[in-house]
Amino acid sequence: MLVHFDEMPDTSRVWIYQSESKFTIPQIAEIENRGKSFCEAWEAHGNPLKSSIKVLHNQFIVIAVDEHYSSPTGCSIDKSVALIQSLESSLGISLFNRTNIAFLDESEVFIKPLQGIKNEISAGVINQETVTFNNLVQNLGELKEKWQVPVGDSWLKRYFA
Questions:
Q1: Which domain holds residue 82?
Q2: Centroid of chain to Cα 24
Q3: 84 and 130 part of one domain
Q4: Are residues 80 and 135 in the same domain?
Q5: Alpha helices for 42-156 (secondary structure H)
Q6: pLDDT tens digits, one per residue of 13-24
Q7: Same-domain status, 38 and 80
Q8: 79-137 pLDDT per residue, tens
Q9: Do 55 and 86 lie in a common domain?
Q10: Most exposed of 18, 34, 92, 133 (fewest Cβ within 10 Å)?
C-alpha cells in the first residue's frame, strides 16, 4: 500500500541505499516509478505493507514501512532487497558498497572511500564539522534528526584521535 513519503509516521522503519554517484533524471524517474509500483503491491503474508520510497539528494534511495500498520517479514524484506538489486542491474549503479562514505558540502554530496578518510582529514577536505550521513538510522524520526551529522559526532570521530 503506497503512501506519500511525508505522510509516513516517524516510527516507520527505513532502509537507506547510497549510490556511488548522483542519479540522472531518467534514473530517478525509473527508481520512483518502479519503487511506487513495488510499494503498491508490497505485502507480508498477504497483509499489505503501508510503505513509501523516496530519492534524497539525488543519491540515496529510502524505503519506509509503517510497522504499526503491518510488520514486514524476512521474505518481504528480501523482496525489497531484490528491488534494489534489480535497480542496480538495470541502471548500472552500485547501491550496496558500504566502503564508500557520503559527506555533504553545503548542498552537494560527495563520496570518499573509507580507506582514504585519514588522507582526506590530513588534507583538510574533511573536518569535524563536515556533515556525513548515518545510513544506519532505523526509522523516519531518526532520518530527520540523526541522518545528517557532523563527522565529530559520528563513528568517524575516531580518525581525529
A1: 5-91
A2: 17
A3: no
A4: no
A5: 74-91, 117-122, 140-146
A6: 999 999 999 999
A7: yes
A8: 999 999 999 999 999 999 999 999 999 889 999 999 999 999 999 999 999 999 999 99
A9: yes
A10: 92
Say if residue 80 is in the same domain as residue 112. Answer: no
The region, left, alpha or beta by phi > 0 then psi within -120 to 50, assigned to residue 18 is beta
In whole angstroms, what is the distance from residue 160 CA to residue 128 CA?
A: 8
Q: Is the dihedral of CA 70, 71, 76, 82 positive or negative?
A: positive
Q: Which helix (H) or strand (E) holds 34?
A: helix 25-41
Rg (CA), the chain: 17
67 phi, psi to nearest 5 deg:
-70, -20
> Which three cell numbers mark 131?
556533515
C-alpha cell at 84: 534494489
Give me 127's grid cell: 573536518
Same-domain pairing of 12 and 36:
yes
Same structural domain, 27 and 83: yes
Question: Are 136 and 60 spatial neighbours (Cβ–Cβ below 8 Å)?
Answer: no
Assess whether 111 and 87 both reside in one domain: no
Q: Which amino acid is at 113?
A: P
pTM: 0.95
